[in-house]
Amino acid sequence: MKGKKDYQMHLMFYNWEKIVGPQIAMHVKPVRMDFRTLFLNADSPAWSTQLKYMERELIDKINGFVATELVTSIRYTNFIIKEKQIKKDTNDGENEPVIINPEGCDIEKAASACGSIKDEDVRKAAERAFAKKEATDRDKRKKGCHVCADCGVLCPPGKSVCGICERKRREKEKEAIRRAILKKPWCSYAELYESFHCSPQAAMEQRLELIRSLSRRVKVGDETSEDARKIVMLKTLLPPEKLTEEKIHEVLGRMSANLIYDPDAFKKKKKPEGRRFTPRKYERKRKE
């Protein structure tokens, strides 16, 4: 799937002039694409301003050419792709690429590991890839790389785990902080630090994430449900025994734009006495 997306992206870059036309292609060039966002470089601000009004049309042309939803948004940048210049130094070969060739032991390991594959072409390709990986791992060990403590992949020196396992550990820590805050919404940062040794920013991010998730389940006017009270405790750090109706009404009133709109809540409100609330259109019909 990744190869298909890369092929479509390169197809768009190669046929850029056919997609947008020669006049636009002369002044606007595609730079890169990240997460379905296409970055363009225009030679003048006038062209970038003009194409912002044509953004939807330009996206439809690109997606229509590659026959899939490849681009969802367009941004403009001053970054220009520069061609790589390889400096050749005759005195030392520091700038020359290092080619790692498999040795006899690597080839033997690859043959024994891939010997069960029946197709000859597939077996040879697998043996070449396996032998190259063994040679690369041996070279990494010489440079000080060691085995990851979680998954067993070689990771650079100075780190106990690889990048993927480090990201998984951060996600587990965030989940643990979120569960602790949800269990005790009025807990302070000092209490969280004693358990997780997290930064104030990490604790605040999980608190805000809980407020956002709970606000999707609370309707406007609801001030008695458990989720509504948890939102107030997360915002004010007040324990349940110190919550008052005035405080709940004040906090949820400021957050009314983030809560679920409930038309029935407005119907239940009592109209103030002494005034007659009549829509103008019915009043005009009555006069006629």
Features:
GMP Synthetase, Chain A, domain 3; 288 residues; 7% strand; 55% helix; DUF721 domain-containing protein; three-stranded mixed β-sheet; two-stranded antiparallel ribbon; flat; 3 domains; iron-sulfur cluster binding; 14 helices; mainly alpha; DciA-like
Describe what this molecule looks like in 3D.
- With 288 residues, the chain is mainly alpha-helical.
- It folds into 3 domains: 2-76, GMP Synthetase, Chain A, domain 3, CATH 3.30.300; 104-143, no CATH class; 167-265.
- It has helices spanning 2-14, 16-20, 22-27, 45-53, 55-66, 104-113, 120-142, 163-183, 189-196, 200-215, 226-236, 245-254, 263-267, 280-287; strands spanning 28-34, 37-42, 73-76, 146-147, 154-155.
- The strands form 2 sheets. A 3-stranded mixed β-sheet has the order 1-2-3. A two-stranded antiparallel sheet has the order 4-5.
- A hairpin with a 2-residue loop joins strand 1 (28-34) and strand 2.
- Helix 6 packs across helix 7 (120-142), helix 10 packs antiparallel against helix 11 and helix 11 (226-236) packs across helix 12 (245-254).
- The termini are far apart.
- The model is unreliable at 79-93 and 281-285 (pLDDT under 50).
